[in-house]
Amino acid sequence: MLDLTIDRLSQESGVSALLILQIETSNGYDATPQHYGALKEALERLGVVFLRAGEEAAGGEGLRLAAAGSEAGLRPEELHSANDD
User: Fold this and answer.
1) Cα separation of 45 and 13, whole Å?
2) What region, left, alpha or beta, does residue 30 occupy, with left being phi > 0 and alpha being psi -120 to 50 degrees?
3) Which residues contact 69 (CB under 8 A, 6 or more apart)?
4) Can you tell me the mean pLDDT for 13-27?
5) Cα 50 to Cα 47: distance, rounded to the nearest angstrom
6) Exposed (0-12), middle (13-18) or buried (19+): which is 63, by Cβ within 10 Å?
7) Which residues share a beta bridge with 64?
């Protein structure tokens, strides 16, 4: 979804890349609730929305990308000296 590397997720979450690999392969026996929470928070900051069953539409739990808001940036034709930061 995000074209995110394990190394980048590790940096964003503070969870070691090795532990992330273990979690992905269902071998994350050393993972604590804090590790999972840190990963979820990092993914949410990066634009992932976690859905509960039945949320937003019929169906089970899932993920989606957050909608780009008005802070997504300016279109090239909107760039000029008045909004140059």
Assistant:
1) 10
2) alpha
3) none
4) 94
5) 10
6) exposed
7) 49
Q: What is the mean pLDDT of the chain?
A: 81
**Cα–Cα distance measured from residue 66 to residue 77, given in angstroms and rounded to the nearest whole number:** 25
- pLDDT at position 34 is 96
Provide the residue type at 83 as one letter.
N
Rounded-to-5 percentages of helix, strand, coil across the chain: 45, 10, 45
Residue 9 confidence class, pLDDT cut points 50, 70, 90: very high
Tokens 């034709």 identify what position?
Answer: 77
Mean pLDDT of 40-64: 79
